[in-house]
Amino acid sequence: MKFESNFKLGSVVEDVITGFKGKVIAHCIFLNGCVQHEVMPEMTDKQTEYPKAKWIDDEQLRLVKPTEIESSGEKPPGGPHNTPTERSMP
User: Fold this and answer.
1) Cα–Cα distance, 68 to 35 (Å, whole number)
2) Does residue 79 register a pLDDT over 90?
3) Please, which residues bridge with residue 56 across strands?
4) With contact defined as beta carbons under 8 Å apart, do 58 and 14 qualify?
């Protein structure tokens, strides 16, 4: 089964039912084909802890703003890296 998503990681989305808004931080596809996205709301200055992210169905979200990485043409951070040049102790 091929993974298809309407949203890229880092995109700002909004739940059309509840109004919950945030950035897509993860994707999940189930065996039955259901696609969900983990959405993390933006942290305000008054919060002392990270807000809780929520898993929301793909069809229930609308795009508010495409990912900044996508629009700037930069490659996202992370992923496979070159082999380290020196060993370090854990």
Assistant:
1) 22
2) no
3) 37
4) no
